[in-house]
Amino acid sequence: MKLVRDLLERYFPKGGLKRGVVILSGGTALAQLIAFAVSPILTRLYRVEDFGYLQIFISIITVLLVVVAGRYETAIPLPPDDDTAVNLAAVALCIVCGVCTLVAIALWFCHTSPSLLAYTRDLARYLWLLPICLAGAGCYQIFSYWSLRKKQYGLVARTRIIQVGSRFSLQLGAALLHYGLLGLLVGETIARANGTGSFLKGILKNDSSLFRQISWKKMCEAAQKYKQFPLILSASGLLMSATLAVPSFLLVSFFGATVTGWFSLVDRVLQVPSVLIGQSLQQVYLSEGAPLVHSDPIALKHLFLKLLKRIYAIPLASCTFLILFGPAVFAFVFGEKWREAGEYARILCLVDLVAMLVAPVEMTLTMLKLLKWRFIWDAGRLVLVTGAMVGIHHFRPGAKAVLAAYAVSMMLCYAVLLVISYIGINQLVASRIENEAIPINPMH
Question: How far apart (Å, rounded) are the C-alpha atoms in residues 443 and 191?
Fold first, then answer.
């Protein structure tokens, strides 16, 4: 640990943006590696169907998390004064309470709905965990953004590792006690909230005086000042999370929980390199590229192309490996009952190939403030992916055919995102060249 601290101090001094990026990405990477390392144990203790239902549960949480705090949590680091920020946090907490209450009431009245049962099946009797998990995850998000405001990057990174460790411990213990699906869901629910206590401890120690600044009047003023977050970011975020959730919902509806379980494992495995490499490069791209938007668009274009050229070899190698040995590898690592997941990996690794290329530069449109372009792309992706999966299932039923439709539609969408991002950068470059070519009238 001393060696790590010495290296951080030498190359990434305290208070620097790059140090924060390194700590956060390092914590996320370590958490992903731990989760991947313990997965072979859990896959041998639980049924494939259990993981399918867990995937549906996670998909529902993923969609609801976008609106659980009204996106006000993402605005917490922005205000110049802590007074406004703490009132924004209070607004976000109130919205979490309201949304979770509404979800609980909706489940109470709709728990016997045929449509709900069609998608959730055996999961239906455990849906009471949803508002509890949502409340814990929503509070964690709010307090983690407060910690980011205070530049407590190490604390945020530690909580992510704690979440992975607690999830595995609880799910392993539940499996040994033969709790089955309930054990997976309870482990996920508790882990989502883990770390909130660490955040609260730090707030009570360092910022307890700020609680006296909270009032209904200031909360209303803060909510009004940052109203664009629930009005704009919620819609875009819902489209993005819905696209990620739709495949699981459709697969469980078409083929049941076993196919969904195989899909969920493949999806998690393929995400590991994207998180370890793609997200880290994305953070570097954001920190280095954002200033270039205003100062040097041509350098931004070169950075964009440079990242694309650097990363392609890694997903190409992993994709080739999975196409050749996918079923045997999944059976050996996760157990024989997961061999079919290796067949799915042969199809879905093609999506990972393109997604890894896009991951570092995915935020280009946001950096260029082309939010309408991004919104249209998100909406188009949702429509195309859903339409492709439903259409193929209608004309050629079969899990592999539907997954192939999903893979092709996602690859097409990612390719379009790369193209329009490049067009956006070129427009910025052309605009800068045009402005510099306009002669300045000395009379003005």
Answer: 66
